[in-house]
Amino acid sequence: MKLLLKGGRVIDPSQNIDTITDILIQDGKISMMKKDIPLPESDSGNDLKIFDLKDKIIAPGLIDMHTHLREPGFEYKETIRTGSEAAVAGGFTSIACMANTDPVNDNRSVTEFIHKQARLAAMANVYPIAALSKGQDGKILTEFGDLKNAGAVAFSDDGNPVADSGLMRHALEYAYSFDMPVISHCEDTGLSSGGLMHEGFISTQLGLQGIPGIAEDIMVIRDINLAGFTRTRVHIAHVSTAGSVQAVREARSAGINVTAETAPHYFTLTDEALKGFSTNFKMYPPLRGADDVEAIKEGLRDGTIDTIASDHAPHSSVEKDVEFEYAANGITGLETSLPLSLKLVHDGILTINQLIEKMSINPSNILKIPKGSLKTGSDADITVIDMNKIWTVDTDKFRSKGRNCPFNGWELKGKAVMTIVGGDVRYADSEL
Amino acid sequence: MKKKKVVMDAEEIERSLTRIAYEILERNKGTDNLIIIGIRKGGIFLAERLREKISAIEGTDILSGMLDITLYRDDVLTTGKRPEIEKTYIPFPLDHKKVILVDDVLFTGRTIRAAMDALMDFGRPELIQLAVLIDRGHRELPIRADFIGETLPSSLWENVNVNLTDNRNTDEVVIEES
Amino acid sequence: MNLSRKDMLGIIDLSREEIDFILDTAESFKEISTRKIKKVPTLRGKTVITLFFEASTRTRTSFEIAAKRLSADTINISASSSSVVKGETLIDTARNLESMNPDIIIIRHSAAGAAHILAGLLEQSIINAGDGAHEHPTQALLDMLTIREKKGTMEGLKIAIVGDIAHSRVARSNIYGLTKMGADVAICGPAMMIPRDIDQMGVSVYYNMEDAIKDADVVMMLRMQLERQKRDLFPSLREYANHFSLNRDNIKLAKNDVIVMHPGPINRGVEITPEIADGPYSVILEQVTNGVAVRMALLYLLSGGKK
Ligand SMILES: [Zn+2]
Questions:
Q1: pTM exceeds cut of 0.95
Q2: The complex's ipTM?
Q3: Can you name the residues that pair with C75 across neighbouring β-strands?
Q4: pLDDT tens, position by position, A24-44
């Protein structure tokens, strides 16, 4: 089986390529990238699929390093199959999934189970992130070595902030010795507990208890200090505040090894969206103020924020069709992440090359996985993007089981029109 | 163009009210236990004029009140908007009183039905009599007036408007096409 | 003037004209409660449901009396007697109520936005009888009616609201209402009970009782509810009473004709001393009377209103 992608604009930041060229895929690998690859003789035609990708962008398969696939334990919200179907529909060829399942991914058997389910689903590559502490309860480290051998790519107690600085220190040091990243969900629960939304004028108006931006900033600064002190590295999950962006920026220039991600909602929405009490705007960290949104955009623009991850957090109506106070945090993201991020390009905040870099090679480098590049011989994971396709978000058409999407009904510009994983077309718009 | 016809001028209204005042006194043999209650909004001015006249004739003050019958209307919830409610002022019990209920125009009778229901919530009057300036016909309920200024045959597509103000010289009753 | 809305969820949505109109209507309704027969037939055949997820005898009773004086049938559902405790969601409850074809649903709930959920879901008119720390519009309307009656207007009055502003829906609704009506609103309480950026609501903020009530025309004391605070915000009621209660001494700082208000129930000796609560400045009982009138007015104005 061969695929020939003709006439697209190939953007591969890992090789500094931005040119119109053809790509030939053979045996699941990129076998050739060359202008005007000649069509083969007719005898082999039945084995070759040709796609005319004129006016489309061909990017290395996009990577979403922060998702929640809910399996095992919460299959009614999402499964590894539906989650990875949503991933390829959203243009992602690889996703990493967080450990807050039931049981928690804090041991080899859960990590292996996730790999197995992902293989069976045969949609996107799924990289398990193992828990940092047993049961994610912040007390005893998990078996980093064994989990690495079982196929975990990072450690995180995402969802439960690591309150104990000593434990965090040990996690950073021990993970570093395996060349594995620690992903930190930064939240000072003393400041955030009971909080339901960003603390500010809107929370005061709505009478909802606030979560101050500094609940995040303080922990970002702690983790940066820990990484600096231990000479290790840390990755900050879902940055939502101006303070965090500034802290990461300063740490980076001081030579501390810190990377950071944000999610599309943090540069798309503000806490104003909470005014109707819709639970689809409830997430952690909460939607912040307009100043924070501007700072996030600036952090993306100047490179302080390395990657955009969806923090895909599907929930069922059981968790969301309830009073705001009782609703679960989180929104679906896999099928809207790229289009919302493309708006940064349309608005001139990022170039398309920068955006693709942030969504391919950068997360690949953070997780140290062999993805995110179109180098000859590498896995043929490819995302084809139509920058200008106008479409309307319709949660009823989502592959994800989660309907908890605040963007339902939004008209967006641009999307993935084809997703190829290991040389196999796993998603294609009908027009292709 | 709306056609407008003046059917009573200020002088005629004044004369009618004087006659009604005498009729009320004659029928009730004086002012004992007599109370005048005007129905908002049109009956308020008329009730006040009648009270003045009767008091002047008899040389004695009589009580008067104001009644907003909106909450007793049979169409109060079926009209598109909720009609505005104004104050009812009947700060005395109506038990054993002779109540003269006053309105400007007697038409379908539904307003009077509502008004009588309302009055019953203020006590048990000895009797209720109805005084109107205009009786334009078209009754939908078995109700009639005891004292009538003028009986005025009208068609259903006409409006009969009694325009009374503090400036009594401009008082008039007009018929307009609706 | 007309109130063209299906629901009454919060004062934030109302215009100054609408507030005046509701208060005018309420004033007309007040007279009904003084009659020998305190009942008009207006809402005959209408069903009003009070759905209370938080206990509150006085608010529920006020609504119930209001509905009954308008001849509506009232059904009271409280969290303890409903199936809510058995895992039924608010939305399930709402759907169940809807199938019984009520006309107006009055909801009190500990979660902000609960009334909005019902309003978005149901065709019936929804009246918010208090949602979390968000809004309590009928309380603010009855407070405004009381102030307007006593002072003639709200324009230009200095009105101090004292207590746990952060957790108070009464404070929020009153701030929205009173600022719209042109009053000069001062809020006061311990620093941890003053929510962030509240000055953006157009109020001045004081942390000291004496400054807040100086020259006030109206002093509105809030009920101190340590139980509603999720964390122990304050050392003790004793400390609170020492610094934030209205008493014989500090009330002298207010204008001579000051009126003292309280949404009730009063914690005597905590936010207000008994001699002030029962004294000549107090209009607390008038507030209760006006509560019925305001609720009658709203039931009347919202009845028949559909989506
Ligand atoms: Zn997280």
A1: no
A2: 0.94
A3: C49
A4: 999 999 999 999 888 776 655
